[in-house]
Amino acid sequence: MFNDIGPLELVTLVILAVLVFGPDKLPKVIQDVARTIRKIRDFSESAKQDIRQELGPEFKDFEFEDLNPKTFIRKQLENDDLGLKEIRNGFDLKKEMAEVTDAVHGRDSDTGSAPSAAASSSGGRVDMTKRPADDRPPFDADAT
């Protein structure tokens, strides 16, 4: 509840409470605040129980924290009923991106042969699928 309050802030709040309420009224104020917090918690728990009863037995494992989207997604990924871990582990993003980049730039990532070697081995014909990396693909203004 008070995870983000540091020690200096806590000391400041105590000093401020002593100054505002006085040392003789401060214990009574603390008891009143604690009683109010306890009542709010009891009211919250009874409301949760009422909602669970109204939802029925099929929602007996329902947690209100699951209404937070981050918690819901984290819980679903931990269950892994769909096999998402296998898909995630079988997918190498760097390799896939390198293949896409090579395809866009017209490079052949497997052989790395130059067009001149392809032309000399094919009897003078130029293989258009293997272009040098700095050569841009042909542009057809009518096709765009």
TrEMBL record:
Q: Which Pfam families match?
A: TatA_B_E
Which InterPro entries does the record associate with it?
TatA/B/E (IPR003369), TatB (IPR018448)
**Organism, scientific name:** Streptomyces thermospinosisporus
Membrane-topology descriptor: Single-pass membrane protein
Q: How does it assemble?
A: The Tat system comprises two distinct complexes: a TatABC complex, containing multiple copies of TatA, TatB and TatC subunits, and a separate TatA complex, containing only TatA subunits. Substrates initially bind to the TatABC complex, which probably triggers association of the separate TatA complex to form the active translocon.
Q: Spell out the subcellular localization from the entry.
A: Cell membrane; Membrane
Q: Where is this region: Disordered?
A: 102-144
Keyword Membrane set for record: yes
Record family assignment: Belongs to the TatB family.
Q: What is this protein called?
A: Sec-independent protein translocase protein TatB
Record's compositionally biased regions (Low complexity) = 112-124
Composition bias, Basic and acidic residues: 127-144
Relate the protein's function as given in its record.
Part of the twin-arginine translocation (Tat) system that transports large folded proteins containing a characteristic twin-arginine motif in their signal peptide across membranes. Together with TatC, TatB is part of a receptor directly interacting with Tat signal peptides. TatB may form an oligomeric binding site that transiently accommodates folded Tat precursor proteins before their translocation.
